[in-house]
């Protein structure tokens, strides 16, 4: 169970942009990631799923799109997230929960589709966020899925969050323009209206719920209650992440970390920035007893699963901006590695290629690439968080300032590949400076030393 999703409506952001973001997590192995552009000539005509044997005939005239797939594609593409040529964004997926009632009525499909497949067969063919929901919904109904997932779509106006319900059913909700969402690894949508302009779902969802007696509530429809879970694991693995972020942005004093009914949609006390989103996805319960780097007891520090982890593979903020030229609107913000020690780089999505240091990640260690360099910084930083946290904080502030300056200075839509290359090299240079400072500071504190008094 991995990943944490963060969504921001256009009226909730500081600049009127929409943002969908996710910290993509994996297992304990490195699982290197890369950042690529898939052009129409590279998109297959028929898609063959690797983990199953499903084959999907794809539409004509695909759009180009950015993606963050696994370097090792032996188990599938796992494209992760991207923005297409129509400035529509998609992140796939957030692993979520289900329950035995749902699985009994609509079991998972062993030979269906899943996270490894979704982005590749959906993103190149959609021209709005709603299009994305409808296309993926149709695929789920036809082919089924072997797992429970949450998926987000956005364009310049709307943000949609979609969840799979059993093997073939699904539901999606438009996030209010003035709201944000923090979604951990559980079924997240709560109150849901089937007949609404701001929802979409399987055509037979209401009948399916009634026929199989799935709704435990006496009034209304709460998808989390009906299709999700409320387990002890949720109280330590999922709910605390939502609690911490909601406390930070909304200061709701009546909530606790183990609350099973934390609201899906929240309003922040101020407008949210890209840095706010990154900060939330880099959080580890700072200023609480539950911070693994804090001063709480050992039990407290190990009690709850944080968002920032050694298992963070890549983190993206897909921002679709208004009030800028079309080719400058889509920004694929990207950071590789554990989120407590990295920073986002903003890449223009309307390009034909990506920078080498982000694109050509090898399977084996190479600190000349951003993925492996960030892994190195995290390893050193984690060895003594107190010693290095000031250096990391300065690095992040300096990098974000330089990245914002590059974006503000970009007026022409010509040769955005060169702008992205400049962004990549700026990130690499700053990260190498940080590595040097951490090495110098750490070497002074090595245990293998003997101080002379002469």
UniProtKB/TrEMBL annotation:
The keyword Protease applies. GO terms for molecular function: cysteine-type exopeptidase activity; dipeptidase activity. The keyword Hydrolase applies. Keywords: Dipeptidase, Hydrolase, Protease. It is an enzyme of class 3 (hydrolase). Its EC number is 3.4.-.-. Pfam families: Peptidase_C69 (PF03577). It catalyses: an L-aminoacyl-L-amino acid + H2O = 2 an L-alpha-amino acid. InterPro entries: C69_dipept_A-like (IPR047804), Peptidase_C69 (IPR005322). Signal peptide: none annotated. GO terms for biological process: proteolysis. Gene3D superfamilies: Penicillin V Acylase, Chain A. Belongs to the peptidase C69 family. NCBIfam families: C69_fam_dipept. This is Dipeptidase.
């Amino acid at each position: 169970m991995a990943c944490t999703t963060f969504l921001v409506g256009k009226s909730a952001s500081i600049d009127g942009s929409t943002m969908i973001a996710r910290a993509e997590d994996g297992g304990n192995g490195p699982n290197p990631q890369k950042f690529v552009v898939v052009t129409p000539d590279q998109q297959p005509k028929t898609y063959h799923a690797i983990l199953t044997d499903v084959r999907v005939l794809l539409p004509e005239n695909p759009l180009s799109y950015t993606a963050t797939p696994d370097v090792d594609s032996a188990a599938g593409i796992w494209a992760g997230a991207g923005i297409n040529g129509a400035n529509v964004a998609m992140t796939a997926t957030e692993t979520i929960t289900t329950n035995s009632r749902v699985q009994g009525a609509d079991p998972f499909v062993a030979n269906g589709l899943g996270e490894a497949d979704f982005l590749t067969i959906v993103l190149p063919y959609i021209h709005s966020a709603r299009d994305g929901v409808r296309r993926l919904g149709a695929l789920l109904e036809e082919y089924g899925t072997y797992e429970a997932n949450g998926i987000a779509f956005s364009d310049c106006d709307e943000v949609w969050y979609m969840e799979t319900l059993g093997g073939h059913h699904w539901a999606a909700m438009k996030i209010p323009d003035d709201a944000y969402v923090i979604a951990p690894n559980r079924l997240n949508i709560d109150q849901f209206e089937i007949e609404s302009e701001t929802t979409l779902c399987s055509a037979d969802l209401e009948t399916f719920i009634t026929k199989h007696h799935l709704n435990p509530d006496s009034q209304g429809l709460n998808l989390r209650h009906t299709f999700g879970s409320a387990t002890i694991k949720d109280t330590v693995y999922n709910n605390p992440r939502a609690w911490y972020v909601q406390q930070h942005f909304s200061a709701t004093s009546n909530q606790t970390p183990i609350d099973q009914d934390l609201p899906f949609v929240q309003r922040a006390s101020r407008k949210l920035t890209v840095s706010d989103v990154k900060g939330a996805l880099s959080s580890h319960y700072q200023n609480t007893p539950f911070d693994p780097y804090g001063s709480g007891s050992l039990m407290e520090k190990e009690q709850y699963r944080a968002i920032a982890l050694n298992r963070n593979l890549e983190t993206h903020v897909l921002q679709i901006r208004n009030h800028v030229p079309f080719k400058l609107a889509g920004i694929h913000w990207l950071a590789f590695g554990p989120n407590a020690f990295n920073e986002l780089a903003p890449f223009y999505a309307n390009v034909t290629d990506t920078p080498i240091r982000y694109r050509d990640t090898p399977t084996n260690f190479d600190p000349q690439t951003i993925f492996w360099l960030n892994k190195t910084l995290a390893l050193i930083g984690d060895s003594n968080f107190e010693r290095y946290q000031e250096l990391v904080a300065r690095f992040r502030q300096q990098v974000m300032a330089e990245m914002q300056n590059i974006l503000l200075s970009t007026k022409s839509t010509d040769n955005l590949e060169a702008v992205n290359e400049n962004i990549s090299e700026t990130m690499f240079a700053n990260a190498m400076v940080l590595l040097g400072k951490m090495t110098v500071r750490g070497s002074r504190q090595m245990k293998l030393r003997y101080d002379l008094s002469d």
